[in-house]
Design goal:
Radius of gyration: 24 Å
Largest sheet: 7 strands, parallel
Low-confidence stretches: 1-33
Distance between the termini: 37 Å
Number of helices: 13
Structural class: alpha/beta
Length: about 525
């Protein structure tokens, strides 16, 4: 089985910390090991063009990310004014004719609107200094039709020049060879239809051609040599669209090559599909868990009051399936991303949003926060049907001149008014809550790395897990309701043999206490328990 994660852990002891999270009281915590030399990290997804503008042109850029680095990670894992994210995922930064850059014109050039290669190197150095992983978004299944490879391919086809090395660079068929379910565009004057499943301006590469495979390996190695830690691979099932086994086989080969080049590489794939197909790709790399995301996903549904045991048994089952596919695999949870309506708009109250954050950030693996989620930003495709509305300018509330992307139509009246600047000054804000929540996650390494077993507490909205890690077991319980709930843990299904004796931490709208075997958890609150 392929190894995806770096398993060696360097333990760096942290100073004692005092939890200042909701419902935590004044409890002091002993020094905990810093586990951030492995790949169980909380990532922060940045849509570069909408994040922060360093030069006043209204477009986000790499220097903007550098200028805002303390916001993402200020170097203090116990900070309550920085998110403390341990990884950054940048949306595509390569030269491209579009605002979103998912159609590369040149993989070896940083788009001039975003900066220069020197800017990227400066960001890499800063990430290294703060022990933050930096991954680049790579769409390798297709390019822009303005890419020189495609121009050469098109000319070779028109001229019938089979000796041209780009003649077979893109996936194409004759009229008789076209198959249903695949989108094609005809090249004028010849019986040649190139595959273009996303747009006629995004032709699909031909990965049956060894030269294409090598070309995309070379791109990845170029950025690994520069110091990039890994990649988020876009649309992994489109390598051979409609043929999962062949696509999986490609990614197994590709990842084997990259792992041989950089053994501790961090990669995650986007397979926007059901659980069955997602799991197929885990033999090659980790994949995002789409079933748990979005307004009707497992996380949001649980936060809104659906039976919590449905959520906890799902997490246990999915983690087990991931590990069966790959012993080094990780669950990759998120609430929403650049292709989805922002999650904050789907909750009736901010307390539900906080509960959803608890459910996925206090969960196994490596979760991803979409920029602006932590302040409750809104944005939806709407009747105009434009993804630009999901990628709106970050609300800094200072002199940043960042503007919404081209094509956005989202009304300002629908957006929140509390900016980053506002929320930093308010210890009860959503931003402050996220900072405390990530701090809780960091202090308890078992949350990311442990093996989860669902617990049925006999209550619709109170449930959780036992989590086993390095020979010890902790308890993690969530009350998603708007009322305080008490439960006798001695009667909980799955708790036989466990003797929880102490509340380690709690975070949420209320508090938590343990009186003998009776656990009382405040409304919309999560609690971590230890054993003797």
């Amino acid at each position: 089985m392929r190894r995806i994660l770096k398993t060696g852990l360097t333990l760096i002891m942290m100073v004692s910390v005092i939890l200042c999270g909701c419902g935590a009281g004044e409890k002091e915590f002993a020094a905990q090991p810093d586990m951030t030399d492995d790949n169980y990290r909380t990532f922060y997804q940045i849509f570069v063009g909408s994040f922060s503008d360093s030069n006043g042109d209204g477009i986000g850029d790499l220097r903007g990310v550098i200028n805002r680095f303390d916001y993402i990670n200020d170097g203090n894992m116990n900070s309550t004014t920085s998110l403390g994210a341990q990884g950054i995922w940048l949306s595509p930064i390569f030269t491209s004719p579009s605002y979103h850059k998912y159609d590369a014109k040149d993989y070896y050039q940083i788009d001039w609107r975003f900066g220069t290669e020197e800017d990227l190197k400066a960001l890499i150095q800063l990430c290294d200094e703060r022990n933050v992983k930096l991954i680049l978004d790579m769409a390798i299944n297709h390019t822009s039709n303005a890419h020189k490879w495609f121009e050469e391919f098109k000319n070779a086809r028109i001229n019938g020049d089979t000796e041209n090395p780009y003649y077979d660079f893109y996936s194409c068929v004759t009229t008789a060879e076209k198959v249903g379910g695949v989108t094609y565009q005809k090249i004028a004057g010849v019986d040649c239809w190139y595959e273009c499943n996303f747009s006629t301006e995004m032709p699909e590469l031909n990965f049956d051609n060894p030269e294409v495979r090598q070309a995309m390996l070379d791109v990845a190695k170029y950025y690994l040599d520069m110091g990039i830690d890994g990649f988020r691979f876009d649309a992994v099932k489109y390598i051979y669209y409609g043929d999962t086994p062949r696509s999986v086989e490609f990614w197994e080969w590709y990842m084997d090559e990259l792992l041989a080049y950089k053994p501790d590489i961090y990669c995650v794939g986007e397979c926007w599909s059901g659980e069955t197909e997602i799991l197929e790709y885990y033999t090659a790399m980790n994949c995002f868990n789409f079933a748990a995301s979005q307004a009707e996903g497992m996380i949001a549904s649980a936060a809104k009051g659906q039976n919590i045991y449905k959520y906890t048994t799902y997490i246990e089952s999915f983690q087990k399936k991931v590990l069966e596919k790959n012993p080094d695999g990780m669950v990759m949870s998120f609430l929403s991303n650049h292709d989805m309506d922002r999650i904050a708009g789907s909750f009736a109250t901010e307390s539900m949003m906080r509960m959803a954050a608890n459910l996925y950030l206090l969960a196994p693996g490596s979760p991803v926060i979409y920029y602006g989620e932590e302040i409750g930003m809104r944005g939806s495709r709407g009747a105009e049907n434009t993804d630009a509305n999901r990628r709106l300018a970050m609300l800094w509330g200072d002199d940043d001149l960042i503007k919404n992307p081209v094509g956005s139509t989202y009304a300002d009246s629908k957006q929140i008014t509390a900016t980053v600047a506002d929320q930093r000054e308010d210890e009860n804000s959503l931003l402050s809550y996220y900072c405390r929540l990530l701090s809780v996650r960091h202090r308890n390494p078992a949350i990311a790395r442990g093996t989860y077993h669902a617990v049925d507490c006999g209550e619709k909205t109170l449930g959780g897990f036992t989590i086993e890690y390095e020979g010890e077991t902790i308890g993690l319980f969530h009350n998603t309701s708007t009322e305080e709930i008490s439960v006798d843990l001695s009667g909980g299904t799955g708790l036989s043999g466990y003797n929880f004796t102490e509340v380690l931490e709690s975070i949420g709208a209320g508090t938590a206490k343990l009186d003998g075997t009776v656990l009382t958890v405040g409304a919309q609150t999560s609690v971590i328990l230890s054993q003797e």
